[in-house]
Specification:
- 15% of the residues lie in helices and 35% in strands.
- The protein is an alpha+beta fold and 182 residues long.
- β7 and β8 form a beta hairpin.
Length: 182
């Protein structure tokens, strides 16, 4: 069976009762206002399309699996002992589907294992962490498909105030598979 946005979306809606949704809290609103009062995120040069590119991150990597213009599906890999930034999307809904055990899902309210699909509403600060000794993987389903919709609150790698990684952090999928990124 081919992996298509339509099949994935149908599978998501078939399991919608199983999806936990984190809603916007007063803390999320307060933190976002504080960040925006200081400085907006700095935009970086982006490709016209993410198709065929792997985005290298200080915590691992991600690449686009599917895009239909409105929605994106990305596969993310977090290396052992690493974590994404604690961030939010002002306009975007994001749903996370664990593919392996060991992903910790964080919000301003706390942290829990990502054991089932989980959605964050726009403005909810969230992040993922790997406290295992092996790589962990999950899918991220985003709507709308807008990578620049990113506000970082905290980050182990000094990226607070920066926008989404630019083309200088991307390599072709072929080069990635051939190990030309190490």
């Amino acid at each position: 069976m081919a992996f298509t946005m339509k099949a994935f979306t149908q599978a998501l809606f078939n399991r919608i009762d199983e999806v936990h949704t984190d809603r916007l809290s007063e803390d999320d609103v307060r933190v976002l206002r504080e960040i925006e009062a200081n400085a907006p995120p700095k935009a970086k040069e982006q490709p016209k399309s993410y198709d065929g590119w792997v985005v290298l991150k200080p915590w691992g990597y991600e690449f686009q699996v599917s895009n239909d213009g409105m929605r994106d599906i990305w596969l993310l890999c977090i290396k052992p002992g690493k974590a994404t930034s604690l961030h939010c999307h002002k306009r975007k809904h994001a749903t996370f589907f664990p593919l392996t055990d060991g992903v910790t899902f964080r919000t301003l309210a706390g942290a829990d294992p990502l054991e089932a699909p989980r959605t964050v509403s726009p403005g909810v600060f969230h992040g993922q962490e790997n406290n295992t000794a092996r790589d962990v993987f999950f899918l991220e389903y985003e709507t709308p498909a807008e990578k620049s919709d990113l506000v970082r609150y905290s980050d182990r790698y000094g990226r607070v105030g920066q926008g989404y990684e630019g083309v200088s952090n991307m390599i072709s999928f072929t080069d990635f598979i051939l190990g030309r990124h190490e």
